[in-house]
Amino acid sequence: MWQIQRTQGCLRGSPMLPQSCHLNKLCTLKRRSSFKVKICSLVLLVRAASQEKTAHKIGVVGSSVDLPCDVDVSNCGKVYFITWTKNVSNEWKRLYLYSDAVEKPLQELANPDRADFFLRESTAFLRISPLRIEDDGTYKCDVTYVQGKCPSLSFATLTTYDSDNISQNTMIFEY
């Protein structure tokens, strides 16, 4: 995700890391009477890495797993809407919707009701239970705040294992 910011951020000694900055020079040709004028402007693109976080979760079929979602009510205000999606064949498929008025599991999480959502001051999570092998994949939590500032994306990669395929000596690590 890239955000547009004013050029003086990186150009005048900003504490931003150099690899997070990218300058694009945009030029357009404008016709003024009988001659052309080249108008250029600098656009600074800053990688918004702090807004995208990835968690790696591991679950065993039949158990439950909590997929985390970063929420910042103290700095960003009240949550307006949260959408959970899953990447299926390179498309994001909606799985869960949350707002004050709506709390709705969709798709395979709705039948039977396999998902619960929990929201706290600084974090939220989607609990999936019981896990199925097909729950394996990449999930995205998209938080929208009432005042429209602080858009936030969190990602979680879920790896599921069938308990029949795990021996007693198998070690599983989350990171």
UniProtKB/TrEMBL annotation:
<keyword id="KW-1015">Disulfide bond</keyword>
<dbReference type="GO" id="GO:0071222">
    <property type="term" value="P:cellular response to lipopolysaccharide"/>
</dbReference>
<keyword id="KW-0812">Transmembrane</keyword>
<keyword id="KW-0472">Membrane</keyword>
<dbReference type="Pfam" id="PF07686">
    <property type="entry name" value="V-set"/>
</dbReference>
<dbReference type="InterPro" id="IPR013783">
    <property type="entry name" value="Ig-like_fold"/>
</dbReference>
<keyword id="KW-0675">Receptor</keyword>
<dbReference type="GO" id="GO:0007166">
    <property type="term" value="P:cell surface receptor signaling pathway"/>
</dbReference>
<keyword id="KW-1003">Cell membrane</keyword>
<dbReference type="InterPro" id="IPR036179">
    <property type="entry name" value="Ig-like_dom_sf"/>
</dbReference>
<protein>
    <submittedName>
        <fullName>Ig-like domain-containing protein</fullName>
    </submittedName>
</protein>
<dbReference type="GO" id="GO:0009897">
    <property type="term" value="C:external side of plasma membrane"/>
</dbReference>
<dbReference type="InterPro" id="IPR007110">
    <property type="entry name" value="Ig-like_dom"/>
</dbReference>
<dbReference type="InterPro" id="IPR013106">
    <property type="entry name" value="Ig_V-set"/>
</dbReference>
<dbReference type="InterPro" id="IPR051713">
    <property type="entry name" value="T-cell_Activation_Regulation"/>
</dbReference>
<dbReference type="GO" id="GO:0006955">
    <property type="term" value="P:immune response"/>
</dbReference>
<dbReference type="InterPro" id="IPR003599">
    <property type="entry name" value="Ig_sub"/>
</dbReference>
<feature type="domain" description="Ig-like">
    <location>
        <begin position="62"/>
        <end position="159"/>
    </location>
</feature>
<keyword id="KW-0325">Glycoprotein</keyword>
<keyword id="KW-0393">Immunoglobulin domain</keyword>
<keyword id="KW-1133">Transmembrane helix</keyword>
<keyword id="KW-0732">Signal</keyword>
